[in-house]
TrEMBL record:
This is Glycine/sarcosine N-methyltransferase. It holds the Pfam family Methyltransf_25. One of its GO terms (molecular function) is methyltransferase activity. Coiled coil: none annotated. Keywords: Methyltransferase, Transferase. Residues 42-137 form the Methyltransferase domain. It comes from Sulfoacidibacillus ferrooxidans.
Length: 258
């Protein structure tokens, strides 16, 4: 059983994305430290609104940001202009990318690896990365660890998911309905947001998304058969060792010939 979804729907509202996804600190220091180690040029795939891209550019790195969603890229361009930095922004699908150069470091964050919702899409992404990565470069990303006891315990029931304040200063109340499909390893989400307008009318917005979980040994095999080896897997951005109950699989990968 699944919920019909459009995987770009959640990312067309850049203001909402920034309101709920926090600042640079969420993973930013981890990727910045890798940038210090490997240097430029850098490619960020699924760069979104430039949450990590722009601070890296401020540190003087030659960085390119790629995203499939025009609305997110426009917000990223505005941030770069406001901060007075130069970033090459590319609107494109990471599964079909031809940038005519290679990079010392390629990364994708925000658990965006899970947005590639089947094995074929993941392999096309990895082919793109392999093609654009220097032979001695690094590919890094994180993905949520699939802890079975936590996957879709709501069974499609609507549950409270907190609040945030939107750009108009209104409190937005969020609920989520999720359902995990063991066959496809997809978790389907419907997110509902409710808020009051200035006239006290209630506004409601629904978005749908599906994210794919991969298991640790599956991920290692996926990387191996697509030209990478796992140099390190951490359980979080604090470099803690990966354990069965770690929230994330934070992966640092190197390229091998294919």
């Amino acid at each position: 059983m699944s919920i019909n979804h459009d995987n770009l729907e959640e990312y067309r509202d850049a203001d909402t994305y920034d309101s709920i996804n926090g600042g640079f600190e969420i993973g930013g220091n981890f990727y910045m430290n890798l940038a210090r180690e490997y240097g430029s040029p850098i490619l960020e795939i699924a760069c979104g609104t430039g949450r990590i891209t722009v601070p890296m550019a401020e540190q003087g790195y030659d960085i390119t940001g790629v995203d499939i969603t025009q609305e997110m890229l426009e917000a990223a361009r505005q941030k770069a202009t406001q901060h007075g930095v130069s970033v090459k922004w590319v609107h494109g699908d990471a599964r079909n990318l031809e940038l005519q150069r290679t990079y010392r470091m390629i990364f994708t964050t925000g658990n965006s690896f899970q947005a590639f919702s089947d094995r074929h899409s993941q392999e096309r992404l990895l082919l793109t990365v392999h093609k654009h990565l220097d032979s001695n470069g690094v590919f890094a990303f994180e993905t949520r660890n699939p802890i079975m006891s936590q996957l879709s315990t709501s069974n499609g029931k609507e549950e409270d998911a907190g609040t945030y304040v939107n750009k108009e200063g209104r409190t937005v109340f969020v609920t989520e309905r999720c359902l995990y499909d063991h066959r496809t390893q997809l978790e389907h989400y419907v997110t509902r947001r409710r808020w009051k307008t200035k006239s006290s009318a209630e506004e409601i917005s629904d978005t749908r998304i599906a994210i794919r979980y991969v298991f640790p040994q599956e991920l290692e095999a996926l990387l191996h058969y697509n030209g990478f080896y796992m140099e390190q897997m951490y359980g979080n951005f604090d470099l803690s060792p990966f354990q069965s109950d770690s929230p994330l699989m934070v992966c640092v990968c190197r390229k091998r010939p294919i």
